[in-house]
Amino acid sequence: SLVLLSVLPISSWVLILLARSAVHLYAARLLAGFWIGIITTVSPIYIGEIAEPRIRGALGNFVSLMTYSGDLFVYIIGPYVSYHSLAIIAGFVPVLFLLTFSFMPESPYYYLMHKEKSKARDSLSWFRGDKDKEELEAEINKMEENVMRQMQNKGRVLDIFTSRANRKAFVIVQMMAVFVKFSGTGVMMAFASTTLPKDAFKSLGPSECVIILGMTWVVFAMVSMLLVDRLGRKILLSFSSFGCGIAMLLAGSWFYLDSATSVDVHSTNWIPFTSFVFHGIVYSLGLGPIGMAIKGEMLAANIKANVSAITSIVLALSSLFLNRIYLLIADSLGMYVNYWMFASSCFLATVFTATVVVETKGKTLQEIQDELARAKPSRDQQQDSGGLALSNKS
Prior knowledge:
Elements: H1 2-5, H2 7-18, H3 22-50, H4 56-77, H5 83-101, H6 108-113, H7 117-128, H8 133-150, H9 164-182, H10 185-190, H11 192-195, H12 206-231, H13 233-260, H14 270-293, H15 295-298, H16 304-332, H17 335-355, H18 365-373, H19 379-393
Helix pairs in contact: 2-3, 2-5, 3-4, 3-16, 4-12, 4-14, 7-8, 9-14, 9-16, 9-17, 9-18, 12-13, 12-14, 13-14, 13-17, 16-17
Main location: membrane
InterPro entries: MFS_dom, MFS_sugar_transport-like, MFS_trans_sf, MFS_Trehalose_Transporter, Sugar_transporter_CS
Transmembrane segments: 31-47, 59-77, 83-104, 169-190, 210-228, 235-256, 276-294, 306-327, 339-358
């Protein structure tokens, strides 16, 4: 899918390069949007299927790190090259991806789903390198057992809702996709140069401020890669979501004082940009990379295709909605309403992570499915377990 659909970003940049009207640019943006939805949905699933549990979190976060690095690259060179030069340079990246990724094998899970165990074994051997043959055979046999169990149902859309594990995974994946978008990061970056106070830049221009934000994302996404398989997903997600909420609450409060009261906030014009930077730090530690990568760990084999398609639609609609209402809300209600809305979403994400999201650190994909399928013990069961533990101690 990734190789075949790489025609989307290539076509997008060709349209940008040859554009003769706004319609061409709209079409290019549409194609790019489809590709972003696909790459942020399919890549985590592919990585989840090929990675060992001990490094799966770091590799999953690598997708976001590369996305942020690409954004930063454009922020840095964009102001200093011509329109057509930028289109050519950026268009070379998906061409390079097509030429190199074409040689990557399908995941072992994909081959097992299509009953091609020999190819699955070769694929796993390629990804594991010089791993012992007995360990390799044991791993492929366990993968086959897990795939057969998960593929008992054929993968209809209804199968998403027929088991507890599938339902819970679906809810977690969709809600995290919404929370990532409604953290405000996308529109905050897109409209930063018009949102921030004009005299807040002082020695820095709008382009330099956006570059600083982009550098923040890249640096702390790398930090997240180092922490995610040590601290776990839930801790980083909870901390990140809460931190993003604080940043957006602070920014919203400043915009409220500036526009809806007579308080003179001119001397504190640095607060919005500082809030944006802090938001970038905590967002890149958890909510951004883990919120997008978690789908690669949660979904059973028989529902991955359908849920991936739904997630891409949810991401696209969320982006479209936020891009549409951001300036409308700012003009009609006040800019602060946007940021208080983002803050509310981030705080809700904190609660959702703490109460619903399951920890996946160090677990195989089947162990995650077992965890999703497991119902919380009732209060009576917990009391019985506690009593049994006490009696065993005595």
